[in-house]
Design brief:
Number of strands: 8
Bound molecules: zinc ion
Strand content: 5-15%
Radius of gyration: 19 Å
Order of helices and strands: HEHHHHHHHEEEEEEHHE
CATH class of the largest domain: Alpha Beta
CATH architecture of the largest domain: Alpha-Beta Complex
Number of domains: 2
CATH superfamily of the largest domain: FdhE-like domain
Structural class: alpha+beta
Number of helices: 10
CATH topology of the largest domain: FdhE-like fold
Oligomer: single chain
Shape: globular
Helix content: 25-40%
Length: 319
């Protein structure tokens, strides 16, 4: 009897040809990102901020190098997540052990550095004075993208410390531990939103589009015809800096390494960074540096789907 393949089975067939998830390599992740940020700072309208971000990511690299190996994953967690189609370790419920000490070390690393804005010193001092429980509360607000104006400046620092702990833990996993989670628009490891998506080159992942987790840096595959926010296959288009604001359609038909992928169904956009155009692209760094594209998209009907972990901005008041 002929049988129709179910969506999960189709995914399983796909897996034969290319990785479903690309887990982070914390030993090089932050080092490469810092280098990319410095490269992108040249001639960029937010050069000073990108150099500060590079300095912050340098500090992340040092924390990642010094961090102890994470605890092994309890077997029942992977089984349960897989049974329920849930992310493996939802970020807010599984803050990395010792992340608070990591944050304090990261703040000490930044102290007195010329690239760090002077206005950040009191923010940093106030953060360093918080106890572990208060930091955990703040971390959960930052992860939920639910921060008040008073914590905007602190948010990228908190996120930087969290990213180190989460990336180390995600990097210690095996692909088989990572469930097929629903919805497919959130990270199957930690349940966070992607910062951007990336078209990879080289190896088995080459030619495939992956969503890059803003928190743990895991990447998971999603076909390009789907919107990375609502999974609609209707009305996904691309806009670059030169044509933002016009109804420029087409699939990667421009030479730019960063495009805004827009969706006519949910009216959001998220950037796609293309390694075919520049092999050194980094989803977090290139998203941040392409802020001109965000400014241009501000004049369109499309709202940004989710934020960049290294930049906290005040959200417009809901009307
Ligand atoms: Zn994640
Ligand atoms: Zn959509």
């Amino acid at each position: 009897m002929q049988r129709i393949l179910q969506p999960g089975e189709i995914e399983t067939l796909d897996r034969i040809h290319f990785p479903r998830v690309r887990l982070p390599q914390p030993a090089t992740l932050f080092q490469e990102r810092a280098a990319r940020l410095r490269q992108l700072a040249e001639g960029n309208p937010i050069a000073d901020y990108l150099r500060f971000a590079a300095r912050l990511v340098d500090a992340q690299h040092r924390r990642a190098s010094a961090a102890p190996a994470p605890q092994p994953l309890p077997a029942d967690i992977a089984r349960r997540a897989s049974e329920h189609g849930m992310p493996l370790l939802p970020a807010s419920e599984h803050l990395p052990d010792g992340w608070q000490a990591g944050l304090r070390a990261l703040l000490a690393d930044l102290q007195g550095d010329a690239a760090v804005p002077a206005g950040l010193a009191p923010v940093s001092a106030a953060l360093a004075a918080l106890d572990d429980a208060a930091l955990d509360d703040l971390a959960r607000q930052v992860l939920a993208d639910n921060i008040g104006r008073e914590d905007l400046a602190a948010a990228p620092l908190v996120m930087a410390a969290l990213q180190v702990g989460f990336a180390i833990r995600a990097g210690s996993l095996a692909e088989k531990d990572v469930p097929f989670a629903e919805p497919a628009t959130v990270c199957p490891v930690c349940g966070s939103a992607p910062v951007a998506s990336v078209l990879r080159i080289g190896g088995e992942a080459g030619g495939h589009r992956y969503l890059h987790c803003a928190v743990c840096a895991s990447e998971w595959h999603m076909v390009r015809v789907k919107c990375s926010h609502c999974e609609s296959t209707r009305g996904v288009r691309y806009q670059g800096v030169r044509d933002a604001g016009t109804e420029q359609a087409g699939k990667g038909d421009t030479a730019q390494p960063v495009l805004a992928e827009t969706c006519d169904q949910c009216h959001t956009y998220r950037k796609l960074v293309n390694q075919e155009k520049d092999p050194f692209v980094d989803p977090v760094a290139d998203d941040l540096a392409a802020i001109t594209l965000d400014l241009l998209m501000g004049d369109t009907e499309f709202a940004r789907a989710s934020g960049n972990p290294l930049l906290a901005i005040e959200k417009p008041l809901a009307v």
